[in-house]
Structures are given as structure tokens and as C-alpha cells.
Amino acid sequence: MAGGSDAARLATEGFSPAVLGVVVPIVVGARVADPPLLGVAWGALAALFVGAVPYLVIRALMRSGRIHGDHHVPDRRERALPIGLALVSIVVGVMLLAALGAPAAVTTFGVVTVAVVVAVGVVNLVWKLSGHAAVAATCAVVVLIAYGPLSLAVTAPIVLWVLWSRVRLGAHTPAQVLAGAATGAALSSAIWTLLP
């Protein structure tokens, strides 16, 4: 079953929250701004605060010994600090995007991410909700809103692959990945509907 484990690791790493947090705001920015290159720049600024800084924080916490597992923080008890610091980074990014006049969709992506990180963080105080699943589903909804229903041909298989990978690697139960995906999809849909 090495092939199954390899495919699971590929999904877990290739579509991790950090990777999606960098790629998706750029993809959304390119769609909503004119010219698209300006949107890419706005998306890259969002990506810095949503994906890159939180990932670097986790790496720093690993080096300092405050996280003992890998960069996916498998021990639920160690998740509060990196989630809290990620939240600070994302909130600062959202405030900066809003202050600089970024396209609404890029700023809204940041707001959606704040809500999902808060939800995952709160649930992880008592139960190991899958952050991978929550972020993958969130990003699928955001891309659906930006690009339309045809985007599901790409994003739906990615979400399913990520969910399968987390269970296959023993990181989560089926209930934890389904709950994560439902949380991400519901929050992103609701917030995107409420904000301009």
C-alpha cells in the first residue's frame, strides 16, 4: 500500500492549508481585478499573511521545541499557539488589505479565513477537527464563487483527495475530516453571502 501512502502524502503536502493559503488568494485576485496582474499582486499580499507567515510561525515553533510533531501539528494540544499566531497574522493582513483598498474579494477571502481559523481553533480545544479539510473546502467555495460552477471539476476532486489523505495517513477520523469540510464550506458560503 505504499502507493496509497505516497498519494496521501502528496495530497496532504500539496494542498496543505499553507499552500492553499498562498495559491488561492492569488488565483482569486487574478479573477477579480483589472488588470489581472494587479489582482495577482493583491492576492500575493494576502498570501503573505494568510499562508506564508503562519507556516513560518509553525516552523519557528518547531525549532524552539514548542511543537514536537511535524508542521501539520498532529498533537491537538499543541495547536492553540500556532492557530492563535496565525489568526494574528491573518487579521493584520485583512486590516492592511482593507486600508490599502484591495479588491473586496481578496479582503473577503481574508475575513473568511479568520472565521475558519477561529472555528477550527475553538473546536480543536476539545476535538481534533481537520484543518486541512476545513481549508480545502473553504478554498473550493471561494474559487467556486470567483470562477463559477466549472471550477468544481478541479476543486471537488482536490477536496475529496485531501479528506481521504488525512484519514489514510491516520491523522484524522472520517468524522473529523467531514466536520472540517462542512465547517469550512458553511462558514465561507455564509460570510461570502453577507459581505459585499
From TrEMBL:
Domain Phosphatidic acid phosphatase type 2/haloperoxidase: 130-194
InterPro entries, alphabetized: PAP2/HPO, PAP2/HPO_sf
UniProt keyword list: Membrane, Transmembrane, Transmembrane helix
Coiled coil (UniProt feature): none
UniProt signal peptide: none
Domain of life per record: Bacteria
Bilayer-crossing regions: 12-33, 39-58, 79-100, 106-127, 134-163, 175-195
Record protein name field: PAP2 superfamily protein
